[in-house]
Design goal:
single chain; mainly beta; Jelly Rolls; 6% helix; 338 residues
Length: 338
């Protein structure tokens, strides 16, 4: 397992437009049914963002029997968001959940209302943990899990077909690292939505506020997490609180962020400013997520599934998990039904 250490002095305390690109790192899984893009495994990004936000992984092609069987965590939160694939047909119907006609041979296809493509039933992921939490999130749903002092859980496909999603790791402050585990689930229909006055920009607000909409999700670390979709030609200026660290991840399309252009699966770390300005000058919809967080100003040490403040605490977490104590008492007796 990899490990890394950072101190507050190595973290940027600014918040908005810095032209730093990170290319996606495609990592094939040992299982041929899973392929993962891990965008945030580069130390350079950690140094800028890890004060509040630790990493982002994108499962771009996960199908049975792949998945993430029973594994532990301590000291941070995971936020799993199942992606929608939006229609990018010639009529720009802007509907969600479209797979283009190149997937017409897929056994899961359904005719799309615009007539130029197909719906793809995206399936779902099921979470189970030893604290008794269990839930299945489908396309557009969010699962917010606080590992706290310790959790063992599984994340496994609950249906056939391809699964796409984002998973964000959010660091907890030292005072919250040993709290009891917590689980929140938000269905797609309950996610707050905002829209620009001209209708050119839509926002799904997972955490924080955007375009007049506010998320109902409780966050221990002050966090903004917004999924934006912009029609061709539209513009957006999204404020970000002063002093927060922030980044943009492009899900689909191409956009101009400040003076920088980025395409799908690229990430831009944002530097000083009062927010981020975006222009979709392409002929296709642009989709990206904006994530920002208030820096904690504490040392961060990460090793595998544990995120703590010192190497000694990491060693203690490993020992607690191995010996089944201090939050991991149920680890030896529990296994998921996945």
């Amino acid at each position: 397992m990899s490990s890394a250490t950072w101190t507050p002095s190595s973290c940027s305390t600014s918040s908005q437009v810095l032209p730093l690109y990170l290319r996606p790192d495609f990592q094939p899984s040992a299982n041929p049914h899973a392929r993962i893009i891990r965008t945030f495994l580069l130390a350079r990004l950690w140094l800028l963002v890890v004060c509040a936000l630790t990493s982002l992984s994108i499962g771009v092609a996960v199908s049975k029997p792949a998945g993430f069987p029973d594994h532990p965590h301590r000291g941070f939160e995971t936020v799993t968001y199942m992606l929608e694939v939006r229609c990018v047909c010639s009529t720009q119907c802007f509907a969600p959940l479209l797979f283009c006609s190149t997937h017409a041979s897929c056994s899961l296809k359904r005719p799309h209302p615009c007539g130029s493509g197909y719906w793809l039933l995206q399936g779902a992921f099921t979470h189970q943990d030893f604290a008794g939490h269990k839930g299945t999130i489908k396309t557009g749903d969010v699962q917010w899990m606080t590992a706290g002092r310790g959790i063992v859980h599984s994340e496994m496909p609950a249906g056939d077909g391809v699964h796409k999603g984002l998973q964000l790791w959010i660091n907890l402050s030292s005072k919250d690292k040993m709290i009891e585990p917590r689980y929140q689930e938000l269905e797609s229909k309950d996610i707050s939505r905002g829209e620009s006055e001209d209708g050119g920009v839509e926002a799904r607000v997972i955490a924080g506020e955007a375009l007049g909409a506010a998320s109902p999700v409780y966050t221990r670390t002050p966090t903004m997490y917004v999924d934006f979709t912009m029609r061709p030609g539209s513009r957006l200026h999204q404020p970000v609180p002063e002093g927060w660290n922030a980044f943009v991840y492009v899900v689909d399309g191409e956009g101009v962020f400040g003076r920088e252009t980025a395409t799908a699966h690229y990430c831009l770390v944002l530097g000083p400013g009062d927010g981020v300005s975006v222009w979709n000058r392409s002929t296709r919809p642009l989709r990206f997520v904006l994530v920002a967080g208030q820096p904690l100003g504490e040392p961060v040490v990460q090793h595998g599934p544990f995120v703590m403040n010192s190497r000694a605490q990491i060693q203690k977490a490993m020992e607690d998990y191995y010996y089944g104590k201090n939050g991991f008492e149920r680890a030896g007796q529990w296994s998921s039904s996945a």
